[in-house]
Write a structure and sequence with these properties.
The complex is a heterodimer of chains A (294) and B (319).
Chain A lengths: L21 H9 L2 H23 L31 H7 L1 H29 L1 H16 L2 H12 L3 H28 L2 H8 L4 H37 L11 H8 L8 H30 L1
Helix pairs in contact in A: 2-4, 2-11, 3-11, 4-5, 4-7, 4-9, 5-7, 6-7, 7-9, 8-9, 9-10, 9-11, 10-11
Chain B lengths: L1 H27 L5 H6 L5 H10 L6 H13 L13 H36 L4 H15 L2 H15 L15 H35 L2 H8 L4 H38 L5 H10 L3 H29 L5 H6 L1
Helix pairs in contact in B: 1-12, 5-6, 5-8, 5-10, 5-12, 6-8, 7-8, 7-10, 8-10, 10-11, 10-12, 11-12
The chains are: A mainly alpha (294), B mainly alpha (319).
Chain lengths: 294, 319
Amino acid sequence: MSPVSPVSVTDVAPPVTAVARGPGVVRRLVRRPSFVAGAVLLVGWAVVAVFWPHLVPVDPMTQHPAERFRSPGWGHLFGTDQFGRDVLARVLAGARPVLAVAPLATAVGVGTGSLLGLVCGVRRGLLDEIVMRVVDVLAVFPSLVGAVVVVALVGRSTTTLVVVIGVFFVPIVTRSVRAAALVEREKPYVEAARLRGEPFPSLLGREVLPNVAGTVLVEATSRLGDAVFAAATLSFLGLGQPPGSPEWGTSVADNRVFLQHAWWTVLFPAFAVASLVIGVALVADNLREQEAAR
Amino acid sequence: MARFLVRRLLAIPVTLLAVSLLVFAATELIPGDVARVVLGPEASQASVDALRHQLHLDQPLPSRYLHWLGGFVTGDWGQSYTLGVAVRPLALDRLGQSLLLALLAFVLLVPFALALGLAAGLREGRPLDRVLSVTGLSLGAVPEFVTGVVLLVVFSVQLHWLPSSAQAPSGAGLLTRVEHLLLPAISLVLLCAGYVARHVRASTVATLSSPFIRAMRVRGLSEAQLVRGHVLRNCLVPVTSALAVQLQYLLAGLVTVELLFGYQGIGDLLLSSATSKDVPTLQATAIVLGAVGMLVYVLADVVYALLDPRIRVGKVAHQ
């Protein structure tokens, strides 16, 4: 008797790959105004983050004491701040620190969480039990409280921000990827791969991963929004970028004492945060809907 | 049920122990000498050494940790390094302040989210539904300090309707305190309302499309009667779990809004003790906030299980 299972290869449904269902999903997505609006905001800010030095009218850091607190007008569309710096230039320059931290933190959190979720979901056993207990405990602790403690004590730096934000995403991502992997492991193609003796890493990476790719993508976009939220908030709390940085949260914190007579120094960076997080949220929500409909 | 409850409650001290260890380990990474930081650069080495001894900083980490832990569980939370007062009354007083703010936010959140979700659910697929859903989703993504700043500019700076500081003058009556707390509470509500409303909407849509509602429509019950008698009741379960998730955000949001609106709550204490390296205060506030957050979570789980007889959490966990 051969070691091959009696199930013929053609009986086993081929794993659906993300690429195979790609075009249809994209076509459906671009027909949704909320997705397009979100994508435009997200891509727009990404372009600004990379190319802002070519886009700003004046240098965002140069101080012009004679130009202090100009209200928005033709010379300065968004006005100037307490040092006479152009607020529009600072808002554009502020996209970079935010978009340097958020995607990296998302990659750390979603990468680690997906790996843990896949291994736990497919293998089960003692490791799964231990990891899920830890995840249960971590998930109920208010993460901002932990982040404030760690960043304040370890000291602020881009690396600290990325790691702290990323680590707090791990439980969330692990849970949802594990749930998706649990469904996949019962399917015939996994059994077939096992029976033909596919090594475990290859079983995870080549068989199961493409089938949970939708879940991972949804997690990644949702967490990207959370990462922007967290990075901006930590900066507002004085735990992100150093004071004087054009980063949006930092700008709001630096200028909030001038709220009474120079609202534009606070309101424009605040609107920048809002437009980016809303953009990401709209994209994430549409992707989630597509994935749920599958 | 009992088994489930015990398991959830047992997770709390375990997590808090882990948190206290983490904070202890992190304090080891503080650059410089805590005693030197407290006394300032001009203090003599002898007085720094004396303070180190007084704060037990000259002892090894494990014994310091156990000493602190013993004190904490018996009610001695130590002295603040920078404020010179006992930590326990300070932290508990600040917690009380924050709970008032959180309570106000919660009281505003529930009816607002219910109304929003019901309005969207009853108009499923129509323009109103789409507008409300996208608005709720967008507001839920925006950090509290952003909505807070916008509220401040509109209602405080431009319209002068509400005070910009959340801290009422001392000795003020409850009504004045609430007036001062309204803007921070609203920025917390705006963050959480979208998510809760989304669950209310989903539950409304599901209930309205179920056969028993159709049967009641056939019997001639009015829309208002249906909503009051059946739709709202069916919303309770998903809303409870959504609220539990959002209460976590609400607690975390306290740190941000208390800073923005200058309110002396426990979030403000957490941040100020973290930046001034006031370790005893920081440990106590982190643990108090963590404990409250986790208790809320467990409580919501219990209410959830009690409300929905279909959920037999203990049994599921047993399988």
